[in-house]
Amino acid sequence: MKVEEKLYQNRYMVDEGRPHVRIQPHDTASPTLRTLVDVCPAGCYSATDDGRVEIIPDGCMECGTCRILCEASGEIEWNYPRGGYGILFKFG
Length: 92
Ligand code: SF4
What we know:
This protein has one domain (3-83): Alpha-Beta Plaits (2-Layer Sandwich). The chain is built from three helices and six strands. It has helices at 3-7, 31-39, 65-69; strands spanning 11-13, 21-23, 45-47, 53-55, 76-78, 86-88. The protein starts with a helix and ends with a strand. Bound molecules: iron/sulfur cluster.
């Protein structure tokens, strides 16, 4: 089974209006923020045409990669989803 097929087994409970990951306001994305577009395994981050980075955390796997990469810079705010929300791993 391919990784993509395994990931498709996961389910997400989206906490509408309360994203657990937020990017601090910025005019131009730093190199660290731009890196998140490539390293997020769920593809939550995307680059905009005007040089910023946006996030839609609905499919976040709570791997913590972006949290660690931005720990020093504080460019994102990262909290675990409230109880009952977030990813529900099928096999783990
Ligand atoms: Fe992506 Fe992992 Fe950050 Fe979630 S915790 S947004 S899956 S890098």
